[in-house]
UniProtKB/TrEMBL annotation:
Any further remark recorded for this protein: Reaction mechanism of ThiL seems to utilize a direct, inline transfer of the gamma-phosphate of ATP to TMP rather than a phosphorylated enzyme intermediate.
Highest taxon above the source species: Bacteria
UniProt organism field: Aliarcobacter cryaerophilus
Record key words, sorted: ATP-binding, Kinase, Magnesium, Metal-binding, Nucleotide-binding, Thiamine biosynthesis, Transferase
Broad EC category: transferase
Pfam families according to UniProt: AIRS (PF00586)
Residues binding Mg(2+) 5: D199
CDD domains the UniProt entry points to: ThiL
Enzyme Commission code: 2.7.4.16
Entry-linked NCBIfam families: PRK05731.2-3
Function: Catalyzes the ATP-dependent phosphorylation of thiamine-monophosphate (TMP) to form thiamine-pyrophosphate (TPP), the active form of vitamin B1.
Protein name as catalogued: Thiamine-monophosphate kinase
Residues reported in the UniProt entry to bind Mg(2+) 3: D20, D66, D196
Length: 280
């Protein structure tokens, strides 16, 4: 058991744990950290590889992605931010513009939070979302088809490029994740279980397997560079075969690549790759 799973087990005292967010009385509560030296480097900002506005915007998107995967629409956000002493008012305006852009794009209010001074930029965001029909990770049924949206692999490649000291395209999904909200809100009525792909397809499949007590039979081999690419924020989901055509039609409507890659079977699935946040 890695440190992340071990720690969650130590603090867990609620039935609401175990999904992209906690669903309580019609609302989904989700929280994500976005920290310097973990999710981005100061050097990338100094070299203009990524802007403070883009960092703030992405820190919101990775949290909104959790809400979308649970079929919830963001309503409110709380921001906790640790700000380096060296930051100017212009730097703060740039950060704020990223947060506000996300709020405009996804129609929610920023209602509070906390600010402290720190040696590096650290951001923690809580999103409160609303849904009448939440989708959980534990709904995969034997015989379901497993699907994910979009293409996987580019975020790992772009991260490696940045770590090598080279610039990536501003359109990179690593800088600006592509969230599939319109498609998924419409497709949700045909979906049995879902989560976003944040730790990589293989690791997130393991989480889905554990939640649903199910195994997977892959239709073809998935390449390592596809299966271990994290921070993709595409949607991983399962559906009954009878609903597959309806979902495929919706994917065509929204011009989204749909990958149908496995079938749920009795058993379990464990990734052979380690968690990228906590390496044993």
């Amino acid at each position: 058991m890695n440190k992340e799973d071990f720690f969650i087990k130590q603090i867990s005292n609620s039935k609401y744990n175990g999904d992209d967010g906690a669903f309580i009385d019609g609302y989904v509560y989700s929280m994500d950290a976005f920290f310097e030296n973990v999710h981005f480097k100061k050097d990338w900002i100094d070299k203009n590889f990524i802007s403070l506005k883009q960092i703030a915007y992405k820190s919101m998107l990775v949290n909104i992605s959790d809400a979308i995967a649970m079929n919830a629409k963001p309503k409110y956000a709380l921001i906790s931010i640790a700000i380096p002493k060296s930051y100017t008012n212009e730097n703060l305006k740039e950060l704020a513009s990223g947060f506000k852009k996300a709020a405009r794009d996804f129609d929610f209010e920023i209602v509070g939070g906390d600010t402290i001074e720190n040696s590096k930029l650290d951001i923690s965001i809580t999103i409160v979302s609303k849904t009448k029909n939440p989708i959980f990770r534990n709904g995969v049924k034997e015989g379901d088809y497993l699907c994910y949206t979009g293409k996987l692999g580019s975020c790992k490649k772009d991260l490696e490029t940045l770590l090598s000291g080279k610039k990536i395209k501003k359109s990179s999904k690593f800088i600006k994740p592509t969230l599939r909200s319109d498609f998924f809100y419409e497709a949700s009525k045909y979906v049995n279980a879902a989560m976003d792909i944040s730790d990589g397809l293989f690791l997130d499949l393991e989480k889905l397997s554990n939640s649903s007590n199910i195994g997977f039979e892959f239709f073809k081999e998935i390449k390592e560079e596809v299966g271990i690419s994290g921070e993709e924020y595409e949607i991983l989901f399962s559906c009954n075969q009878k609903n597959l055509k309806k979902i495929e039609n919706l994917a065509k409507k929204y011009e989204i690549k749909l990958n149908i890659f496995a079938k749920a079977v009795a058993g379990s699935y464990k990734s052979s790759f380690s968690n990228h946040h906590f390496k044993d």
